[in-house]
Write a structure and sequence with these properties.
By secondary structure, this protein is mainly alpha-helical. Helices cover 48% and strands 0% of the residues. The protein is built from eight helices and no strands. The N and C termini lie far apart (84 Å).
Length: 197
């Protein structure tokens, strides 16, 4: 957390709830995948949430990762480690833009401050998981990791029907609409009959 004191009250509860979403097992999977994907040059972080944040904070590892997933022209042209905050944030932003170009949806993306200030590292994990899922789904040969680490996204399975098939389908009553077999009220009683005096 960048020069912020401890939070209290409602702010503390909100931060604790966000922190509880962080998954240490997913961290190990992501570290293993990034290390295989980018090679030994990216190193490995210290175990734990803060080590994971410090490893990714300057944006260089993330930029190497996204560049390794593009088969042709690399989206992040300049990857330079810097100790200056705005340069690190700019490198993270370049990763986020490239990830969006790769196909990660806006709802799966983290904000730069989520990583840089360590506010929501679970969001960082979600983004990297979505990126891994896309890499498996695209099957471009750029994914280097265990295919069981991430789920494969569903793909379109478009079907073409002829006019005859469509007309024949209109005559079939699907089971979702129910059945009228045995639809009589015989034997049904709702209490005693009305007494007329």
């Amino acid at each position: 957390m960048a020069n912020k004191g401890p939070s209290y009250g409602m702010s503390r509860q909100v931060q604790d709830k966000i922190d509880s979403k962080y998954d240490p097992e997913l961290e190990q999977i992501l570290v293993e995948w990034i290390s295989r994907q980018c090679g030994s040059g990216v190193g490995r972080p210290e175990a734990g949430k803060m080590g994971f944040q410090a490893w990714l904070k300057d944006g260089c590892v993330l930029s190497e990762l996204i560049n390794s997933l593009f088969p042709g022209d690399k989206p992040v042209k300049k990857i330079a480690s810097s100790s200056m905050a705005f340069k690190q944030m700019e490198q993270i932003s370049q990763f986020l833009n490239a990830a969006e170009k790769y196909g990660v949806t806006k709802t799966d993306m983290f904000q730069t401050v989520d990583l840089w200030e360590g506010k929501d590292l679970a969001a960082v994990q979600r983004t990297l998981s979505a990126l891994g899922s896309l890499a498996i789904t695209k099957e471009e040969g750029t994914y280097h990791g265990d295919p069981n680490w991430f789920f494969k996204k569903a793909q379109e399975n478009k079907r073409e029907f002829s006019d005859d098939q469509l007309k024949a389908g209109k005559n079939v009553i699907g089971l979702q609409m129910g059945s009228n077999k045995g639809a009589s009220q015989e034997g049904m009683s709702y209490g005693r009959p009305r007494q007329i005096l």
